[in-house]
């Protein structure tokens, strides 16, 4: 499984960005797709998750109501729509795919999101 993240950039506070995570390879075995982020000096944190094909979503409290994770199955792509961005959202964002059986944990490269105040 290969993941390609894109869509990061520099945006002013209150603005929006949409991140994309395009999957290839044996993606049909994937159960959950996650977006994580890591700010300088901080631990990587889970931002949002979606079950592949089932559409069940979960969000960190800090982004609820502002971020939306969605899946485009024909395009094998998961999106993270980020609205009302805040400076504290500044981080490198990573997409991650998990397979339960057999266990697999796959990561894309990060994409930088910078929110200026």
List the helices and strands and how they pair.
Elements: E1 2-6, E2 9-12, E3 17-24, E4 32-38, E5 45-51, E6 57-59, E7 67-72, E8 77-82, E9 91-99, E10 104-107, E11 111-116
List keywords for this structure.
mainly beta, 7-stranded mixed sheet, 4-stranded antiparallel sheet, 11 strands
Tell me what you see in this structure.
This protein has 117 residues and is mainly beta. It is built from no helices and 11 strands. Strands 2, 4, 5, 6, 9, 10 and 11 form a 7-stranded mixed beta sheet that branches. The protein has a 4-stranded antiparallel beta sheet with strand order 1-3-8-7, with no helix packed on it. Strand 5 and strand 6 (57-59) form a beta hairpin. It is globular. The model has no long low-confidence stretch (mean pLDDT 95).
Work out the radius of gyration: 14 Å
* Shape estimate: globular
Helix content: under 10%
Spans of at least 5 consecutive residues with low confidence:
none
Tally of helical runs: 0
Reported for the largest beta sheet, the result is: 7 strands, mixed
Mean pLDDT: 95
Number of strands: 11
End-to-end C-alpha gap: 37 Å
Strand % is over 45%
- H/E element string? EEEEEEEEEEE
**Helix/sheet category:** mainly beta
């Amino acid at each position: 499984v290969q993941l390609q993240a894109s869509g990061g950039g520099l945006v002013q506070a209150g603005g929006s960005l949409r991140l994309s995570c395009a999957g290839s390879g044996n993606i049909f075995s994937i159960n959950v797709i996650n977006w994580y982020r890591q700010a300088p000096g901080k631990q990587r944190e889970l931002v949002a998750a979606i079950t592949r094909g089932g559409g069940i979503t979960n969000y960190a409290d800090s982004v609820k109501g502002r971020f939306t994770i969605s899946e485009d199955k024909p395009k094998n792509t998961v999106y993270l729509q980020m609205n009302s961005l805040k400076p504290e959202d500044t981080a490198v964002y990573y997409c991650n795919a998990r397979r339960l059986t057999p266990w697999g944990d796959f990561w894309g490269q990060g994409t930088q999101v910078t929110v200026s105040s």
